[in-house]
Amino acid sequence: MALPAPPPARVFAELDTAPAVLGRSGPPALPGREVHVSGSAELSARPDRARVSLRLGSRKEAAGAARSSVSRRLEYIAHSARQRGIPEENMTVTEDFSRVENTYQMEAEVCIIFSDFGKMQNVCNLLTEKLGTAVTISPPHFYHTPEAIDTLRRQVCVAAVGNTRRKAQEVCRLFGQSLGTPLLIKEEETKEWGGHIDSHLPRSPDSLTLQERIQSATAHASSRVVAVFEIKAKENRRNKLL
């Protein structure tokens, strides 16, 4: 049986010849000598927001009774959330009032946005305990704000640049040289993808645990950077002491 073909060679770094760069302070760059390197990084960010929907309703023969039943529960939900530091602007209430046959039906939905998942669990647990079947609480929907995604993109690019510079330093150290200033830094490739659940069995979204939901909503990003640095001549230790 023939052996599989070896993987293609990867270029860790290469030395190139280019015109010397003038006007730089410190030890002079070696004329026409550069080090070309590439580096990459991969980072992830957990979701920073969660949206929970709470549904409640009442059907009564009298319109006022239906409204009053729902209003009392809405007031309790809002009060409980405010007590735990949820700002008013993070709560949205929609109401629907209709007549069904000979009765009046009042339905309402409360959407609450949480940035603190611990507070989210406390509020949901309290409402489940106090209101029971009088309220239906949906599983939390985790997501990222645009600011969180922008931060992840910046961080992964900076990490890739740092890895690239460390590679260049190691190459220069290997050959007894000193790394100079960067001549080119370019982000060549970026990738972004969502999280996944470490399970081989297909599962319904409603059956996921809280941690599995967070894992599924975690964002991942990678960046690959290429850079060119000049190579400086090492300072003479005796001259440096003088």
UniProtKB/TrEMBL annotation:
Signal peptide: none annotated. One of its GO terms (cellular component) is cytoplasm. GO terms for biological process: immune response; positive regulation of canonical NF-kappaB signal transduction. It is found in: Cytoplasm; Nucleus. Residues 23-42 are annotated as: Disordered. InterPro entries: IRAK1BP1, SIMPL/DUF541. It holds the Pfam family SIMPL. Keywords: Cytoplasm, Nucleus. Belongs to the IRAK1BP1 family. This is IKBP1 protein.
